Amino acid sequence: MNAPEIVLSINEILFYFTRAAVGVGVPYGLAQDFARSSVWIGFSGLDPAKVSLPALQSIDSGKSILRA
Q1: Does the pLDDT value for residue 46 go beyond 80?
Q2: Cα separations in angstroms, 51 against 46, 67, 68
């Protein structure tokens, strides 16, 4: 069974991805940059959630050097 496809607007991507990054401890300004890069990923034809999730998980688990 395939998951249903959800289409988000640019503003929704910016909102949700910024909040997700802040939620794992990324400073707000970097979280906004992360969200903007997710928009670019979406425009490139890729699913930004699938691409961004491993990065967020890495930061949240402390495996990333971005963890302060």
Answers
A1: yes
A2: 8, 19, 22
